[in-house]
Amino acid sequence: MIWIILLVAVGLLLYFAELVLLPGITLAAIGSFCALVGASIWAFTSYSPTFGWWIVASAVIGVILITVIFLRPKTWKKYSLHTQINDSIGTALASQYNIGQQATTLTRLAPMGNVLINGTTVEAKTRGNYVNAGSTVEIIGFENQTLVVAEVKD
């Protein structure tokens, strides 16, 4: 009888793992199902129908309790992050730099790298052409917080 109870406990533990720790893996769910059904069949065949129904009822109640307790928001409230992020990336590049303004590459743009513009290092990228370090580039646009540049041909 202890093995049947242990099998129900393992089935409920695997169900908990599937629900909370490993969602979508399904190996724990299959193991849980097999353990709970196996315990129920074993209880019906080895003992009595009454004991079998007690095992089925305990498995169903255990699954319902685990689902209700661990899927309600109040359970996870103490473990969740309660701080808010109020910062932003900063001022837009378009307000600091102008299209047509020139800069010097500090690193190779392949296609991303750094450029020096007005004494400030800024991340920049090209439209696919690689630009060697030390080259002069011109701002042709802005994308997210990155300058889009093109090499200035002498």
Kindly describe this structure.
- The chain is of the alpha+beta class.
- It is 46% helix and 19% strand.
- The protein has helices at 2-21, 27-46, 49-71, 73-76, 93-96, and strands spanning 102-105, 112-117, 120-125, 136-143, 146-151.
- A 5-stranded mixed β-barrel has the order 1-2-3-5-4.
- The chain starts with a helix and ends with a strand.
Topology:
Blueprint: H1 2-21, H2 27-46, H3 49-71, H4 73-76, H5 93-96, E1 102-105, E2 112-117, E3 120-125, E4 136-143, E5 146-151
Parallel strand pairs: 3-5
Antiparallel strand pairs: 1-2, 1-4, 2-3, 4-5
Helix pairs in contact: 1-2, 1-3, 2-3
Question: Which features does this protein show?
Answer:
single chain, about 150 residues, alpha+beta, five-stranded mixed β-barrel, 5 helices, about 20% strand
Compose a concise summary of this entry.
With 154 residues, the chain is α+β, with helices and mostly antiparallel strands.
